Amino acid sequence: MDRRTLLLAGAALAAPRIATAQAWAPARPMRLVVPFAPGGAADTVARLLADPLGQALGQTVTVENRPGGGTTIGALAVARAAPDGLTLLYATPNVQILNPHLMQNLAYDPAADFTPVIAILRAPKLLVVRPDSPARDVAGLIAQAKAQQGGMTFASAGVASSGHLAAAMFGQMAGLDLLHVPFRGTAPAVQEVMAGRVDFMMDNIATLLPLVRDGRLRALGVSTADPAAAAPALPPVGRTLPGFHDASFNYLLAPGGTPPAIIARLNAELNAILDSPPLTSRFEVLGIEKLGGTPEALAAMVREESGRWGPVIQKGGIRIQ
Predict the structure, then answer these.
(1) 228-265: per-residue pLDDT in tens?
(2) CA 211 remoteness from chain centre
(3) Dihedral angle over CA of 296, 302, 307, 313, nearest 10
(4) Strand-strand pairing, 218-222 and 114-129
(5) pLDDT at position 16
(6) What is the per-residue DSSP string for 188-233?
(7) Residue 91 host element (H or E)
(8) Residue 191, CB half-sphere, CA atoms under 13 Å: how many?
(9) Residue 15 scores a pLDDT above 50
(10) SS3 289
(11) Helices 277-286 and 41-57 meet at what angle, rounded to 10?
């Protein structure tokens, strides 16, 4: 069963929970911890969720930014919080999927310290080159890299960033010897690719697609197994490199040991919010795709992704501490 089928099945199973989950309601204001600084993509989506969730539950939901430590500072704050439904974590793959492979001494247990609530979204990546690159498609880029014998470079927003890992997996699966050029953030990485000083990069579609539409970058493919809704004409990289697929998915976690009745209420309300026209429209503008579904579907996705990224990180010798 693929991920999309699993999530759709989970969404169908979530509907009966709504009637049974109404018994729990938060007695005090809630906080949604975002392990990133204000203004980024995660912070933006968290704020889109906070107001409607607060209205549905009858309490204020405050977004609390706790950046640093590769998401570990914010994750640890939630792991140590009371399991009463009043504290949630806006998680990216770092929290449970990547950090256990990237860090030797993780300050929390990625499984036991959290309870899955719901998958929120997936953000496809684009594989891009400068407009005058000789590579016209994915096959052309692979051929060019092999001809350069280890001289092809790729940019990223930093070591162990999602773009670094995606390009590393691309290189490993294609049998390429690539040189990683990390930058402090996506903006300088993009500038170097546009200037032709770095050969290619992979990063979130919301960031790169406007530059592709303006003619400042050329997109060769999309990272997801199926075409992206925001750029349906772009072929998946996996059509050229079978088995390749990647999308940064975001999700919500509660502290470990949070009672099932609380999780059921949160899951039911968040599924309804994700299906609401205002949020659907906003996600379309941002170029991201909503997920939803059950906590069980989310837990299965986390296990699958952890098993997939562990070997990539190990083979690439990627570490952040």
Answers:
(1) 888 999 999 999 999 999 988 999 999 999 999 999 99
(2) 21
(3) 180
(4) antiparallel
(5) 47
(6) HHHHHHHTTSS-EEEEEHHHHHHHHHTTSSEEEEESSSS-BTTBTT
(7) strand 87-91
(8) 6
(9) no
(10) strand
(11) 180
What residues contact 19, with CB distance under 8 A and at least 6 apart? Answer: none
Place of tokens 């039911």: 268
End-to-end CA distance of the chain: 35
Q: In angstroms, what is the C-alpha Rg of the chain? A: 20
Contacts of 84 (CB under 8 A, 6+ apart): 258, 262
pTM reported for the whole predicted model = 0.86
Residue 6 vs residue 70, higher pLDDT:
70
96, two tokens? 């449970």
- How far CA 133 is from CA of 86, 141, 189, 202, in Å, comes to 51, 9, 16, 15
**Amino acid identity, position 31:** R
Kindly give the interhelix angle for 162-174 and 295-316, rounded to the nearest 10 degrees: 60
Q: Which two tokens stand for residue 24?
A: 């729990």
Using CA atoms, how far apart are residues 307 and 273, in angstroms rounded to an integer? 30
Residue holding tokens 């990063």? Answer: 203
